[in-house]
Amino acid sequence: MFICEIPLYVQILIPAAILGVLAVIFAVLLAYLSKKLAVARDERIDEVNKNLAGANCGGCGFAGCEAFAKAVVEGKADLSMCSATSKEKKDAIAQILGIANDGEEQILIVACRGGNNCDNKYDYQGYGDCRSMELLAGGRKVCPVGCMGMGSCTTVCPTHAVDIVGSNGFSSIDVSRCVKCKQCLKTCPKGLIKLIPATAKVYVACSSHDKGKDVRTYCKSGCIGCGLCSKVCPHGAIEIKNNLAEIDYSKCTGCGLCAEKCPVKCIVKR
Question: Which pLDDT belongs to residue 55?
């Protein structure tokens, strides 16, 4: 009986050829399906993303700028949700999408300048930050909303725009470095970090609603609700509400007379 032995190289080439043919078939099939089943991407997403600040801070509630851009294009998010992008860039985005941009540019400020000017109710020794100190009798400050200066806001800031001001013991924000991600705002246990219009020239650096006579007993920089700022304002932009001065920025011209008249200097010029 004659037995034909297949050469070794042929034994290798045959399965290799079969695999090659299968690879080509699958490649063609995948190419066809990718075109057939492809979801069209809106080109405006990339245009919107280019105009965003690119901070990827998550302050808007989305994973990053690209995710936010997609949500804006799809109508699932509003431009006002992004604080890091300038008004000019938002205007450009609004033009791309054919929508109106009524959002006013804002900045973050710390509405307290008490710090070491405010009395402590106990001495705190140990690790932690403002959030952990808050658990101990509402924090060390006699003022129920006084800045404790333990730096919860500084640790969460991605651009190191928040710092404790020297020996003063209260937080301050460097607007030039701030991307307005609002992480500090969300972190402060006292709610002292607030948004004001970027055009504002003055702001009230106090959040206490205690009566003036009580504020005098524990803080040298707290608003005492005396009303002198309101009386000196030529445009009626300041009112005393619940013992605290409040500025109506739609009326304020930034003359600074209120800051000059304030006896405790809790109205700050920018």
Answer: 85
